[in-house]
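Researcher: Here's the sequence for the chain we discussed earlier.
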Amino acid sequence: IAYKYATKLAKLPFVEAIFVTGSLSMNNCKKSDDIDFMIVTTPNTLWLTRFIVMMIFIKDRRFPGQKTAPDKICTNLWLDTNQLSITTRTLYHAHEILQAKCIFDCGNVQYQFLKQNSWVKEYLPTVYLSLLKLPSPNSILSNRFSQVGEGSRVRYFGIQILNYILFVLQYLYMKSKMT
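Model: Thanks. This is the structure I predict for it:
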């Protein structure tokens, strides 16, 4: 089920990588569990991509407050390739970073994610070093968005503005729900 959803997500032009997280990444989930994803986007497109994903998967996603959501998507972490480092440095966070399983990678993002979070080796050095040696899934795919030509600058600027507008709207929606 996770691969089915990831295949759909991978078709979006701004999705650079998809990781399975949570209990599924540890092969430790119950039938009543949702499917936790970490999605990495092209720079300056995170909020646009998040909006598109929420609209496409409106019937298939877990909503805030749902106690159980079997087989539903929970996009619990969003990053863009300009900011892959996790700043909270605890054993718990190191474990969470290292248990994330990359199932789609369009530009060696998994390796970059590990390198930018190399602080985790202070807690779990053996796991960190073994993960650095793994091949990245779909690593032969090129980065789709970074290859745009000179004529695309105006369009890309428009995307950045749309991304900012969607950030503001989503932030205002989420503000009352933040804990």
